Amino acid sequence: MFISNYQILVVDDIPDNVFLLQMLLEAEGYEVETAPDGSTALQKVKEIQPNLILLDVMMPDLSGFEVTRRIREDEAVSDIPIVLLTAHDEASLNEGLEAGANEFLRKPLECDRLLERVKAYCPSVIAS
């Protein structure tokens, strides 16, 4: 069994996506907080200061790009790693990286790849 002291914020406006990511990450021992939109995400980032943010690009109020920019402008939380989740093309991905995202993962997500990247930022430890 793996345990973790890491908190991950999952931001997506599609409840099924949030549910699947939450179940996957919690099964690996991560604590997961969720936000259904960019505005809520910005509030939660300030409140909980997660260790990692998994952020959908296409959302109705604020795009993942705009949320990323705002987080990077706030010195209190600007160093939190952000992984964008997107089905967009290469040009859009470059926009996300320019906004300050650490990296991106393409949708549909591959669970093994997602966990590999999450563990790069938030390594699990084996419980004794």
**Architecture (CATH level 2) name:** 3-Layer(aba) Sandwich
Structural class: alpha/beta
Uncertain residue segments? none
Largest sheet at a glance?
A: 5 strands, parallel
Strand order of the largest sheet: 3-2-4-5-6
CATH topology: Rossmann fold
Helix content: 40-55%
> What is the helix/strand order?
EEHEHEHEHEHE
The count of strands amounts to: 7
Rg from Cα: 14 Å
Q: What is the CATH class? A: Alpha Beta
How widely separated are the two ends? 8 Å
Q: What does the average pLDDT come to?
A: 92
Tell me the count of domains. 1
**Estimated share of beta-strand residues:** 15-25%
CATH superfamily: Response regulator
**What is the helix tally?**
5
Shape by Cα distribution? globular
